[in-house]
Amino acid sequence: MTIKEFFSFKVNKFFWLNIIGMVATGVLLLFGVMRWLDVYTRHGEAVIVPDVKGMTVEEATRLFSEKKLACVVSDSTYVKKQPAGIILDLNPAAGQKVKEGRLIYLTINTLSVPLRAIPDVADNSSLRQAQAKILASGFKLNEEEEVSGEKDWVYGVKYKGRMLTAGEEIPLGAALTLIVGNGMASIALEEDTLGVGEEKTDAPEASPSEEDSWF
């Protein structure tokens, strides 16, 4: 092969047409792939998550459907001052941009008051200790009920007039009554002790009789 023949492709129009055709095909193929990816991922399409806090699940479902979104209840918590069943929180949060069809997770206010075990305070706590434990557990306290016993010592816990046992579960936020000693037992014990001492102290001393006297 001569040098002239080797470089003859430069003037061969069919060679350049093939090169141009391959480049054009590559460009079209690349454009088609990018276009398909845009459509597949809904590039540029976003929906703002609406604020559904305070709504019921049914109301939120209708609103999400209009926005081409979906929702599901994923968690529940208890807020006493809020109606049962309403939405307390959502994830992703309201105002965020998401793609159509995104699933929104809802947290609702529980439909029933949760139960909680009362702490063990009877016969092992002072009034102040028991009050701290009861309040920290999420319960309320009524005025104490006094019984004869050691001053400010807790002898029991009542709920609606019924004596409770340690670990028993009752509605969270319930008002409990502590049974505490009024100190009368200590006073009675002191009086008994003093009474015994007085008997010994007040016993009259035997005086010598005239017959026993040496004088």
Record the SSE blueprint.
Elements (H helix, E strand, L loop, with lengths): L2 H4 L6 H28 L6 E2 L8 H10 L3 E8 L9 E5 L5 E2 L4 E7 L5 E3 L9 H10 L3 E2 L3 E3 L6 E6 L2 E2 L5 E3 L3 E7 L2 H19 L13
Parallel strand pairs: 2-5, 7-12, 8-12
Antiparallel strand pairs: 1-4, 3-5, 6-11, 9-10, 9-12
Briefly, what is this?
The chain is built from 5 helices and 12 strands.
Please describe what this structure looks like.
There is one protein chain. With about 220 residues, this protein is α/β, with parallel strands linked by helices. It has 5 helices and 12 strands. The strands form 4 sheets. Strands 7, 8, 9, 10 and 12 form a 5-stranded mixed sheet that branches. Strands 2-5-3 form a 3-stranded mixed sheet, with helices on one face. A hairpin with a 2-residue loop joins strand 9 (about 155-160) and strand 10. The chain is rod-shaped, with a radius of gyration of 44 Å.
